[in-house]
Amino acid sequence: MAINPALDQFPTEALAIGKMVASFGEIELLFGLLAGSALRNQNLALRAMYRIRSTGGRIDLADVLMRDVLIREGFQAHYEETLGVVRHCLKIRNQYAHCHWSPGTDGLFFTNLEEAANRADDHKHVDLTILKEQEAFFDHANFCIWAKNSTRKLKRQDSLSF
């Protein structure tokens, strides 16, 4: 018996979806490392962030922790882009993580059951083209964060102390 027969019928799409759902945690951690770099205290930033239960709350806290420093250092435009990209990746991840999947004659469909309870049109189609574009957007988020981190000389192993 398959856990999710719809995703078994569309394994390539399932792989892309699974990668985004599972990989958002890496983007979140990198964003936290950026906050720690801005504060010059990785331990404080990461411990504060991961005491918060919701992912959106952690992103908001990281924003509060680093925004003023990065703006003061002249990185406002890049930071605003990075924050927007991270938040959009979270939105993509959440739409897939909190839904029900079903196969259709035209491909793979998903429904957010909480949203569907409030409206009649609840199935959304997703295809490999859209998923590949979204995966590329996740890569762009990773690039934005690392580009900013490289200006601050952040080392990935800094996260290991927390």
What does this structure look like?
- The chain is mostly helical and 162 residues long.
- It has one domain (5-156).
- The chain is 68% helix and 8% strand.
- The chain has 7 helices and 3 strands, in the order H-H-H-H-H-E-E-H-E-H.
- A 3-stranded antiparallel beta sheet has the order 1-2-3.
- Helix 2 (11-39) crosses helix 3 and helix 5 runs antiparallel to helix 7 (128-151).
- The longest helix is centred in the first third of the chain and has 29 residues, at 11-39.
- Mean pLDDT is 88; it is low at 154-162.
Key terms for this structure?
disordered C terminus, 162 residues, elongated, three-stranded antiparallel sheet, 3 strands, 7 helices, mainly alpha
The average pLDDT value, as a whole number, equals 88
Strand content: 5-15%
Q: Helix coverage percent of residues?
A: 55-70%
Alpha-carbon distance between the termini? 41 Å
Write down the domain tally: 1
Instruction: Tell me how many strands there are.
Output: 3
Q: Based on Cα principal axes, name the global outline.
A: elongated
Q: Which H/E pattern describes the elements?
A: HHHHHEEHEH
The neighbouring-strand order within the major sheet is 1-2-3
Kindly name the structural category: mainly alpha
Given the structure, what is the number of helices? 7
Rg, please?
A: 18 Å
Unreliable stretches, pLDDT < 50, 5 or more residues?
A: 154-162
Q: What kind of sheet is the major sheet?
A: 3 strands, antiparallel
